[in-house]
């Protein structure tokens, strides 16, 4: 379900270290994206899939500045599951359960959504994914959605630019 990495490459993030959690259903394109971006340091891969492992994500959340949520925009059969997982993540992320959380740890966390696999026929566009994921329900957290095609590397840097600027502005 997720990949955690730190220290995104310098052209986007300067010398700053950022701790970022990449999440999404299996097959969404997470590994492809990280490979494409040649992310500095992939810290760990969280085993995918089952709802039962969801509690373990929490261990990765403290001091995470951003979540990148990757969606297979062509997988309309599972978009609803993707939505449920997404909101479950934000709920867990928002909750304040010692010893995992403090208000401080959560303050800066922003959310970048990649509407991936735009090259595939029938892929939902960014507006449709926004609707399907019910992104308007996100409260008091900065977010943005970008259309991507990870296999061609399209849209990824635009998304990371937004993330970088948002994190730099410190208002996330
Ligand atoms: N057509 C297309 N296929 C993609 C895209 N991104 C990833 N894939 C393919 O989707 C499959 C799953 O990708 P992967 O990165 O392993 O997904 P993960 O399970 O989220 O890590 C692989 O066969 C990728 O080549 C994309 O933008 N377009
Ligand atoms: Mg993977």
UniProtKB/TrEMBL annotation:
Keyword line: ER-Golgi transport, Golgi apparatus, GTP-binding, Lipoprotein, Myristate, Nucleotide-binding, Protein transport, Transport
InterPro entries linked: P-loop_NTPase, Small_GTPase_ARF, Small_GTPase_ARF/SAR
PROSITE patterns: ARF
Subcellular localization(s) per the UniProt record: Golgi apparatus
Pfam families listed in its UniProt record: Arf
UniProt-listed Gene3D superfamilies: P-loop containing nucleotide triphosphate hydrolases
Superkingdom, natural source: Eukaryota
Main location: Golgi
Family assignment from sequence similarity: Belongs to the small GTPase superfamily. Arf family.
Designated name of the protein: ADP-ribosylation factor 1
Organism annotation: Brassica napus (Rape)
């Amino acid at each position: 379900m997720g990949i955690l990495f730190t220290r995104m490459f310098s052209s986007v993030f300067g010398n700053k270290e950022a701790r970022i959690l990449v999440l999404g259903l299996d097959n969404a394109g997470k590994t492809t994206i990280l490979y494409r971006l040649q992310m500095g340091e992939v810290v760990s891969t969280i085993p995918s899939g089952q709802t039962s492992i969801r509690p373990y994500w929490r261990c990765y959340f403290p001091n995470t500045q951003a979540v990148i949520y990757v969606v297979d925009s062509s997988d309309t059969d599972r978009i609803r599951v993707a939505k449920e997982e997404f909101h479950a993540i934000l709920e867990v992320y928002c909750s304040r359960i010692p010893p995992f959380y403090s208000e401080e740890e959560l303050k800066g966390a922003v959310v970048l959504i990649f509407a991936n696999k735009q090259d595939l026929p029938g892929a939902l566009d960014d507006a449709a994914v926004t609707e399907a994921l019910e992104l308007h329900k996100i409260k008091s957290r900065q977010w943005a959605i970008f259309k991507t095609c990870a296999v061609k590397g399209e849209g990824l840097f635009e998304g990371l630019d937004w993330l970088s600027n948002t994190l730099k502005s410190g208002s996330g």
